[in-house]
Write a structure and sequence with these properties.
By secondary structure, the chain is of the alpha/beta class. It contains ten helices and 16 strands. The strands form four sheets. It has a five-stranded mixed barrel with strand order 3-4-5-7-6. It has a five-stranded parallel β-sheet with strand order 9-8-10-11-12, with helices on both faces.
Length: about 375
């Protein structure tokens, strides 16, 4: 809406609404800026769409009102409180109805967070160049670990979540817990020492690093170079379960597996005993069916062999009889008697069988053999 002035004599006079509207329109042309200060008078309510607080300059007490959408504020998960020093990215804004000047925040970071992020990004590139995050160096987790190592904080919810999940899924699992600092300046080295202790423990086949959610600063120890290198060089496979799903400390990249939550880590390191039992039952049933089929095939084979053995003597006798009859037939066909039965005769003289007429003279006594007997004769 165009801002117009009222003409009052030789003056241009603006109404309060028009003045505020004009100033608000001019402020929208200004760029987004970062402002640093301490949070005071932080106010939020479940029914409010925005969160309100005041930025105070600790050097001279100058104050600036700030407003940010509640959904955006909650998504940042900074757990801010009065007295925290922050960087706020926002645009100048004027609430026209009351002439209330504020900074409309677009994002908030804790003081010094930008330096931390830049340092982490440099460390990330350095370790990646060394191959610590390479997929090919990731090891497979053991299917049935003899012992599970757990590095976590004392009385931490993360420890409870991991142990509850492991015991519910595989009650027989053995877990060796190493409790240590998981935040603060001493945490990184303490976690490295706990990790080394579990690596040297007997029968530990997998180690879980577990910590619940927290602010960016709370999770910084899990991006410490000493810890990242210790995770990468660990002699047994490691699972990183630090923070929530959207948190990605550098140890997540160096570990052999990453779990979005400690509960998910418990599901990764041990099998579900119910599913395992069902799989064993299916395998047992398959082996039983296979053995039964093999037994049935063997029984059928034995029965076939038995039948063949039972029939073998008769078949052999039959084959011998057939061969004998065949030989007898051939002998009968070659026998002189078969020739005699067809009407031929054998004539014998004094010197044996008469084969030619020249061997016989008139008056010789002959013997004639026919099919059914013999009789004498005299040659003429």
């Amino acid at each position: 809406m165009k801002v117009e002035a009222l003409q009052y004599g030789d003056r241009k006079v603006y109404s309060v609404a028009a003045f505020n509207r004009g100033v608000a329109d001019w402020l929208t042309r200004l760029p987004s800026v970062w402002v640093v200060g301490e949070i005071t008078e932080l106010r939020r309510h479940a029914r409010w769409q925005s969160v309100f607080f005041t930025l105070k300059d600790p050097s001279d007490g100058a104050c600036l009102g700030v407003t940010i959408l509640r959904s955006r504020f909650d998504a940042l998960r900074l757990d801010l409180a009065d007295g925290d020093r922050v960087h706020v990215l926002g645009r100048p804004d004027l609430y026209e109805a009351r002439g209330d000047f504020r900074l409309r925040a677009l994002s908030i970071e804790r003081w010094g967070l930008g330096d931390h992020l830049a340092a982490l990004e440099r460390l990330k590139r350095k370790l990646a160049d060394e191959g610590l995050f390479a997929p090919e160096r990731k090891r497979a987790l053991p299917r049935l670990p003899r012992r599970v190592g757990l590095v976590t904080g004392n009385d931490a919810a993360a420890k409870r979540d991991v142990l509850t999940t492991i015991r519910s899924r595989f009650p027989a699992a053995r877990v060796l817990v190493a409790e240590t600092y998981v935040q603060g300046p001493l945490a990184a080295q303490a976690i490295v020492d706990a990790l080394d202790e579990l690596c040297s423990a007997p029968e530990v086949d997998v180690i879980v690093l577990a910590r619940g959610g927290g602010s960016f600063e709370d999770l910084l120890p899990f991006s410490d170079e000493r810890l990242v290198r210790a995770v990468a060089s660990c002699s047994v496979p490691t699972v990183s379960a630090v923070g929530h799903e959207q948190d990605t400390p550098l140890c997540d990249l160096a570990a052999d597996a990453r779990a979005s939550t400690p509960t998910a880590a418990g599901r990764l390191v041990v099998p579900d005993v119910t599913e395992l039992q069902e799989r064993l039952d299916r395998s047992r049933a398959g082996l039983e069916r296979g053995a039964r089929r093999a037994l049935d095939r063997g029984r059928q084979r034995i029965e076939q062999l038995h039948e063949q053995l039972r029939r073998a003597p008769a078949l052999m006798v039959e084959r011998k009889r057939a061969r004998l009859e065949h030989a007898a037939g051939r002998l009968r066909a070659l026998s002189p008697r078969s020739t005699l039965e067809r009407g031929y005769a054998i004539v014998r003289g004094e010197e044996g069988i008469v084969r030619t007429v020249s061997t016989v003279t008139a008056g010789d006594t002959l013997e004639v053999e026919v099919a059914d007997g013999r009789f004498g004769a005299r040659a003429e």
